[in-house]
Structures are given as C-alpha cells and as structure tokens.
Amino acid sequence: MALTFDAAAHVYAVDGRHVQSVTSRIKAAGLLGPAVSFYSPESADRGTRVHLACVDLDLGRAVTLPADERGYLTSYHQWRTMLCPTWTSLEQPHYSARFDTAGTADRLGTIDGRPVVVDFKTGGPANWHGLQLALYDLIHDDLAPQQRRRIVLYLRQDGRLAQSVEFHAAADYTQALALIERTDTDGENSSDDNHAR
Q: Per DSSP, what are the bridge partners of residue 20?
C-alpha cells in the first residue's frame, strides 16, 4: 500500500485512489463554519510557512520566516521549552485502512511520558478543533482511542507563549466515527488541510 500526498492540490491517494482526509470529512459535513470564509491563499501560505519553520526548529535546521511571522515560531519555541515534548512524528501523512481516511497530524509523541497528538493553529479557536484531533487519534490506530491527550496549540503572532488547549470530550469520537461512516456523495476527496491552519 503506497500513500501519496500532493501538497499543491492537497490530495491524498492510496495506490492511486483518492481518499478522504480528516479535514475533507469535516468540511463535507459543513462543520468548518466561519473558517471557510476566512480562508485565503495568503493565510494558507502563512500557515504552511509557519508549520515548516516549526519542523525545521524541531530538527535543528536553519529557519527562515518573514519578519512579521517570526513571532509564531517564538511562540512555539517558548511552549516547547516549557513542556519538553518528545516527538515521534513531525507532519507525516498517514492513512488508516480501517477508517479509509488520511491526514497529517502536526505532532505525535509524548509529554511527561503520556502519548499526545498536537495540532498547530495560526488562527483562533473553533468548535471543530476537538473533532479534528479525535479523527487524527483514530487514524493513528496504534493506540486505542482516547489514550492520547489531544492538544491544539494556538501560536501567537506577537511571540507570546502559545495557548495550549486540551480536548477531553468523548463525544468528539462519537462524532468522528459518524463522519467516517457517512457515505461520500459530493465527491470531495481533497484534504484541504490548509483550511485547518
């Protein structure tokens, strides 16, 4: 089984077959709400640049960001220094055959020895963020559901410490499974991951 991700088109495929992504399932259900109206190519590009800069930071590589975006990186760096996470996966596309869903969790790893899935946001909080993390947890089925902590890290443009929000609602998993079980009737196959940034 070969998973491919076309970053330019935001499309996941397994052995050449397009598959639903975490974000496309949320979008198809109409749950992104106002996030869709705020989306722009510029905000998507910014999110991508910041995410890649955070990967570079974690890997000890040189980081390049426009001056007005460096605060996001500082925000993450402060949080990382304080929490000392151990990452096992950095922005790695993943596919679950069990749930026929693909996605790219920003980070998997541990904090204080406890498994965690983390998603970075350069925008503000939204109702669907807990659901998004539940879906990421489900498709990484090496652990039983709800064993991982689910954290969204809201990076701040002004460089202040990132706001860490942890999600606990079991209902997120019920809703996630309902989205997976939905029949795809609209042909949406693209991941639209940048909508989530």
A: 101
Measured CA to CA, the distance from residue 73 to residue 59 in angstroms comes to 14
User: Of 98, 102, 104, 99, which is closest to residue 189 (Cα–Cα)?
Assistant: 102
Residue-wise pLDDT tens for the chain (197 aa)?
A: 899 999 878 899 999 999 999 989 999 999 987 655 456 678 788 999 999 999 999 999 999 899 999 999 999 999 999 999 999 999 999 999 999 999 999 999 999 999 999 999 998 899 999 999 999 999 998 999 999 999 999 999 999 999 999 999 999 999 999 999 985 444 444 444 444 55
How far is CA 32 from its chain centroid? 14
Angle between the N-to-C axes of helices 171-181 and 129-139, in degrees from 0 to 180, rounded to the nearest 10: 70
Cβ-Cβ contacts under 8 Å for 180 (sequence gap 6 or more): 25, 99, 100, 101, 135, 138
Between the CA of residue 96 and those of 19, 38, 171, 180, 192, what are the distances in Å?
10, 30, 21, 11, 18
CA–CA separation, 142 and 194 (whole Å): 26
b/e string for 108-128 if b means 16 or more Cβ within 10 A? Answer: bbebeeebbbbbbbbeeebeb
With beta carbons less than 8 A apart as the criterion, state whether 143 and 115 touch.
Answer: yes
